[in-house]
Amino acid sequence: MSKRRPYVRSMDGWWKKNPFYVEYMVHEGTALFVAAYAFTLLVGLVRLGQGEAAWTAWLEALKSPFSLVFHAVFLVAIVYHAFTWFKLFPLTMPPIIVNGKKVGPGVVVGSGWTAAVVAALALLGLVWRIAA
Amino acid sequence: MSDTKKIIEIEVLRYNPESDKEPHLEVYKVPFTDDMSVLQGAQYIKDNFDGSLTFRWSCRMAICGSCGMMINGIPKLSCETFLRDYYPNRIRIEAMAHFPIEKDLVVDLSGFIEKLESIQPYIIPKEPRTLEQGEYLQTPEEFNKYIQFTSCINCTLCYAACPQVGLNPDFIGPAAIALLHRYNMDSRDGASEQRMELVASEEGVYNCSAVGYCSEVCPKHVDPGNAVNVNKINAAKDYFLRFLSPKGGSK
Amino acid sequence: MEIFKADVVIVGGGGAGLRAAIAVAESDPKLKIALVSKVYPMRSHTVAAEGGAAGVKKPTDSLDYHFHDTVGGGDWLCEQDVVEYFVKQAPVELTQLEHWGCPWSRTEDGHVNVRAFGGMKIERTWFAADKSGFHILHTLFQTSIKYPSIKRFDEHFCVDLLEEDGRCQGIVAIEMGTGEFMMIEAKSVIIATGGAGRVFRESTLGGIVTGDGMALAFRHGVALRDMEFVQYHPTCMPVTGLLFTEACRGEGGYLVNKDGYRYLQDYGLGPLQDKPKNKYMELGPRDRLSQAFWYEQQKGRTIEHPTLGSVVHLDLRHLGEAYLRERLPLIYEMAETFMGIDPAKEMIPVRAGVHYTMGGIKVDGKCAASLGGLYAIGECSSVGIHGANRLGSNSLTEIVVFGKLAGDEAAKYVKSAAPGNSSSLLKQAQAIEQRVMALKTKTGGTERISVIRKEMAQSMEDGCGIFRTEDTMQATCDKLAELRERFKNISIDDKSSVWNTDWLMAVELDYQLDVAQAMAHSAINRKESRGAHQRLDGPNEAYKQRDDVNFLKHSEAYYVPGSAPRIAYGDVKITKSQPAARVYGAAGEKADQERKASNV
């Protein structure tokens, strides 16, 4: 009879034991904020569909201190979400070969950010013009 | 030579299956010089304090992959981790996470070996070639597609890093998938399709949630996390292309 | 006791053992193969080999050149018919590795590239960056998984051979994970357990290189041949002994002393060269370069480093970071990690360290030992290709050429071998179990194995170093005899069964003491200097010279229980290359031309 008695350690609280895992849980957690904000926008859309009175009330509600704090938190969470999402590009994307050399991680991440910022500015500009 | 050597406290997670109910920590005061690795610290304990301290090691130069341990909770190769970087604080060494402990710092690696063997880690040639015909030609461009993934020394630090492996021990895991990818990307091999089944299976790449710690701890810069995630794309392509052509679309 | 029946059992899962297993499996898929290794195969020390594997490749090269380089490199102590076989099979086996996926470094047009290496006339060293052994081992291990007839017994420690009726009929091993003994009955046994360099203090070798198979064959009456020839590699990391590959020099690195002077030009390896020139300067053979280090040290021209001791400098700065990172990535990282040195900016302190055991289990040109059914391959064997000094990159080729040969031979042998007497073998195995268990369970001892091990290693370095005298070697022989006695009084801390490395390291120390004695006694009896065995003594300093009259012979050490080994001598097989002066550099080129002119 073998004298082996392999000991299996518990995975309870695994994510608390290493700063790398804590950060992982935080950035995964920001997805909840993305979902919450999407829900907020959805509510806005519904209010728009319910007529001018509802829409105006909605806009007023958005200006409340409660709402402003929420939106500040959403902004921080979603920017961090975007930051970590781009940071993961070198992990999640296949290698990009330009002129026989693999494009470095800095360039990959930088390109992602650049594209995102350009798109955001373009959209903001478009909306501004429409509003004006 | 100075005779007042510095002393560092090494705390070791000990476990003797024949006498211990569970692992427990013990502290040893080890005199050291700046060039000493954690492995040499463990050897000092074994030679001078307790011959029963058990750990795997061999090459001392981070190429054999034997000496992986958790050092202050982080998976590292003990032969290339140095005591001077922790002094004067106490350093804690434990068996690699996510594996059952056999004794002290030795874990049961049989599951890992089975996973490596399951992926058909050998060339299944795309085209036959006799030895008389000489070597397959492989351009530097073709070479660069897979060479990074050949560097894996099977040290299993990536398994100790991956929480998904810890939560689901059936997940074939980073190194096995990196090796699978190495063969798929080698221009001489023609068996990506055969390997796809395992990639897309319950034990395959979809267990990965892009924690990325595997690539962070890999001592040989293999980037196994990339191999896993790229194969998510491959598995998805294969799945959808199956509707178009009965043989599937891999490679 | 668990009993497993196989046709062929292979002890050692490194490059040679794996290649032999594959050869048996391909030769006849119905044969049952047991591959036994005390570590997982990818941990075998083949993994640490860096530079490459030699095999004729360029159209300007020839089998003849490779042959002459090897025989001259071995100071004419090679079995020349075996060398002829070796150089012929080399390119075949290296191509086979490529077909199996080995990522040899390539030229721009996609062919396998070759690099210059010490003592080689033309570039013929196939290489995979500076991790050639790593890539070869992983290729072989992964390929071996294809063959269902290979059953691996990973982390099983072989403690003895089973011998009956003049044949080797199996082995006894400890399953390390449980501490239980098991027996493998087989019609043929192939030993591929590697070298024994850990008997020395400072070496490139991993902890597992303890001469296990050598000691086992030795104790069963097989001669250990040419054990006095131990290779010092000229460029090792001081203190740790870790290897900086010869390829550093092949790619153009210099060795300089404390005055920044490339001192090798003073030792018959000149004249000075700007670029690496085969068989000149830093591309001379390893024994000559290590001996030059020793002479520089005597002259006070080495650098006396405050913590590292006597060193010389390996200068790679002129190669530039990009080239170094591409061609020598592993050693770049080693210099950075272990020494905090950037080789593109600073010179690397190095010195000679023990690296390879030229000698080993005496086998014939078909890898067969004197005991029926027993074969030996790789560093643990002496098949006759290295002679008194091995050329770099010949040993990675050796493992695949002779791994294949031994596998084929063993597969043939078992077809006509009669089955053994299982119950008699089991009784033997049980006696072995008792003996080895007693080592663990006995009480009352006062010696620690780590102390005996360190004293052995220090003594071997002192007495059987690069240069030897009667006095130094005698002191070592005496010390080893003392340590043998003291070994009887050891006490092992760990009395458990599961994963008892305390106990297994004691068994390894037992093996090492036997092998060390074979080395020391072979050395003291060879009254000449040849290759890696260099003496400073003798009447009128006679032993400083090579003596082809009396010592153009192999030494053969035979085990004598409880006593020093008996040293005998055997003939050297000479075919095409008559012993000549061993010269390199300009003198070597002149000798080559003269030989060509006289059409030898």
Show the helix and strand layout.
The complex is a heterotrimer of chains A (about 130), B (about 250) and C (about 600).
Chain A: H1 19-49, H2 52-62, H3 65-87, H4 89-92, E1 97-98, E2 101-102, H5 105-131
Antiparallel strand pairs in A: 1-2
Helix pairs in contact in A: 1-2, 1-3
Chain B: E1 6-14, E2 24-32, H1 38-48, E3 68-71, E4 74-77, E5 91-94, E6 101-103, E7 106-107, H2 110-118, H3 140-146, H4 157-161, H5 163-167, H6 174-185, H7 192-199, H8 213-217, H9 224-244
Parallel strand pairs in B: 1-5
Antiparallel strand pairs in B: 1-2, 3-4, 3-5, 6-7
Helix pairs in contact in B: 2-6, 6-9
Chain C: E1 2-5, E2 8-11, H1 15-27, E3 33-37, E4 53-54, H2 63-73, H3 80-99, E5 114-115, E6 125-126, H4 132-144, E7 150-154, E8 156-164, E9 167-175, E10 180-185, E11 188-191, H5 212-219, E12 224-225, E13 230-236, H6 247-250, E14 254-256, H7 286-298, E15 303-305, E16 309-315, H8 321-327, H9 329-339, E17 348-357, E18 360-362, E19 374-376, E20 381-382, H10 394-416, H11 422-441, H12 449-463, E21 467-468, H13 470-487, H14 501-525, E22 534-535, H15 548-551, E23 553-558, E24 566-571, H16 585-597
Helix pairs in contact in C: 1-4, 1-10, 2-3, 3-10, 5-14, 12-13, 12-14, 13-14
**Mind telling me the C-alpha Rg of chain A?**
23 Å
Cα end-to-end separation of chain B: 62 Å
The share of residues in helices of chain B is 25-40%
Give the overall shape of chain B, derived from the CA principal axes: elongated
CATH level-1 class of the largest domain in chain B:
Mainly Alpha
User: Into how many domains do the coordinates of chain B divide?
Assistant: 2
Please name the fourth-level CATH homologous superfamily of the largest domain in chain B.
Alpha-helical ferredoxin
Q: How would you portray this structure in words?
A:
- The complex is a heterotrimer of chains A (132), B (251) and C (600).
- Chain A has helices at 19-49, 52-62, 65-87, 89-92, 105-131, and strands at residues 97-98, 101-102.
- Chain A has 132 residues and is mainly α.
- Chain A has two domains: 14-87, Up-down Bundle (3 helical TM bundles of succinate and fumarate reductases), CATH 1.20.1300.10; 95-132.
- Chain A has a two-stranded antiparallel sheet with strand order 1-2.
- In chain A, helix 1 packs across helix 3 (65-87).
- The model of chain A has no long low-confidence stretch (mean pLDDT 94).
- Chain B has helices at residues 38-48, 110-118, 140-146, 157-161, 163-167, 174-185, 192-199, 213-217, 224-244, and strands spanning 6-14, 24-32, 68-71, 74-77, 91-94, 101-103, 106-107.
- The radius of gyration of chain B is 21 Å and the shape is elongated.
- Chain C is of the alpha/beta class and 600 residues long.
- Chain C has 16 helices and 24 strands.
- In chain C, helix 1 (15-27) packs parallel to helix 10, helix 2 packs across helix 3 (80-99) and helix 12 (449-463) runs parallel beside helix 14.
- Chain C is globular, with a radius of gyration of 23 Å.
- At the B-C interface, helix 1, helix 2 and helix 3 of B face helix 3, helix 4 and helix 9 of C.
